[in-house]
Design goal:
Distance between the termini: 45 Å
Keywords: 4Fe-4S, Iron, Iron-sulfur, Metal-binding, Methyltransferase, rRNA processing, S-adenosyl-L-methionine, Transferase
Shape: globular
Pfam families: Methyltransf_31
Order of helices and strands: HHEEEEHEEHEEEEHEHEHEHEHEHEE
CATH topology of the largest domain: Rossmann fold
Mean pLDDT: 96
Structural class: alpha/beta
CATH class of the largest domain: Alpha Beta
Number of domains: 2
Family: Belongs to the class I-like SAM-binding methyltransferase superfamily. RNA M5U methyltransferase family.
GO molecular function, one term: metal ion binding
Number of strands: 17
Strand order of the largest sheet: 1-16-17-15-14-11-12-13
Largest sheet: 8 strands, mixed
CATH superfamily of the largest domain: Vaccinia Virus protein VP39
Protein name: 23S rRNA (Uracil(747)-C(5))-methyltransferase RlmC
Oligomer: single chain
């Protein structure tokens, strides 16, 4: 894949972009197998490939420059904006939206946040595209100073982008290396973006997490569903469930499924999906995965886990290791190193099958799904 930004050394984020894509997949497979170590009992399925370009459903664009000439992309080492509106990772729907959003910044006189000087208001634009081409837009602001102007000019933006369905403001007053703050102000009547994945309508709220590569996420859920169906458990937990992707896909007649997630917004979205699908034996709760497991009176036969990069942590691993009623674990990991550390803490739950899913082409990152079975 050729990228003019990479060639000009304006953006070097895609560290593998000069390698043929087939070589990238081979390298990632070798890397994950090396990290997990030699395991003769582990059956590796063929990797799931991605589109090489245009695969990202979300753009987190740092806003730089000035209110008269904004840039959308990243910042250089001195904190100056580098415009990446034509980045090849984004699909045509997002690429077409970027110039319109840049014009809106000018129209609404939104001063980009100047990192070195700690001045200005607009820090990021976060834009998500659904499989149907609908958009969610979030303005990440330092304060509410610009909200009135955004509201005033929002009808013009909605006319210019008729596929724009959800717009919100995220307030991030602190000067720190994080993308967003805790408070969200929704500016549109519609609050959720529908994300069609396989058989389900899933719903994304402004602060909910969703996998960045929709087709590969769909393959991830299908693979988990296949493994769970083969084992036919009567009870399943989906820990770190997000908006409910694994729980929804692994539901079946006669099976009780519970999803646990700290984000109340994500749980609200998951509950909506379950209601619409008529899944009355799928339930979701807001809570910490480890605290829920350690405090539970009833233990399921199968547990699905999809933790952040840091992994499950020692407490949850020890609980899974000691809970003999848990016969299988389906572990979705975005970091092979933390997966290997967790596996070492659960020696009686042995990896039987695994599959690499290339959620992030052109980079060294990937997702790996592993089936663990006791004994």
């Amino acid at each position: 894949m050729h990228c003019s930004y990479f060639a000009a050394e304006r953006c070097r984020s895609c560290t593998l972009i000069e390698q043929p894509y087939a070589d990238q997949l081979v390298g990632k497979q070798r890397q994950v197998e090396a990290v997990l170590g030699r395991r003769p009992e582990l059956d590796w399925l063929a990797p799931v490939a991605s589109l090489e370009a245009g695969f990202r459903n979300k753009a987190k664009m740092v806003v730089g420059g000035t209110a008269q000439q904004p840039t959308l992309g990243i910042l250089d080492a001195e904190g100056r904006g580098i415009d990446l509106q034509r980045c090849g990772l984004y699909p045509p729907g997002l690429t077409a939206a970027f110039p319109v959003l840049a014009e809106f910044i000018v129209q609404a006189a939104l001063a980009p946040y100047d990192v070195p000087r700690r001045s200005g208001e607009l820090k990021f634009l976060i834009v998500t595209e659904s499989p149907d081409g609908e958009l969610m837009l979030r303005f990440v602001l330092r304060s509410q100073e610009s909200v009135t102007r955004i509201r005033k000019h929002l009808p013009d933006l909605m006319r210019a982008l008729p596929n724009l369905q959800v717009v919100s403001v995220n307030l991030h007053p602190e000067h720190k290396a994080t993308v967003e703050g805790q408070r969200e102000i929704v500016l549109t009547e519609q609050e959720t973006l529908r994300m069609r994945v396989n058989d389900f309508d899933m719903y994304l709220r402004p602060q909910s997490f969703f996998q960045t590569n929709t087709p590969v996420a769909a393959a991830l859920y299908r693979q988990a569903r296949e493994w769970v169906a083969e084992r036919a458990p009567e009870s399943v937990w989906d820990l770190y469930c997000g908006v409910g992707g694994f729980a929804l896909h692994c539901a079946a007649p006669g099976r009780d499924v519970i999803g646990i997630e700290t984000s109340a917004e994500a749980i609200a979205s998951a509950e909506l999906s379950a209601r619409q699908a008529g899944l009355d034996r799928v339930a979701f709760q807001v809570g910490d995965a480890t605290a829920f497991a350690l405090g539970a009176d009833v233990v399921p036969e199968l547990v699905i886990v999809n933790p952040p990069r840091r992994g499950l942590g020692e407490d949850l691993c020890r609980w899974l290791e000691s809970s003999s009623a848990v016969r299988q674990v389906v572990y979705s990991s975005c970091h092979a190193g933390s997966l290997a550390r967790d596996l070492a803490l659960m020696p009686s739950l042995r990896p039987r099958r695994a599959r690499l899913l290339d959620m992030f082409p052109q980079t060294t990152h990937y997702e790996v799904l592993t089936l663990l079975e006791r004994g």
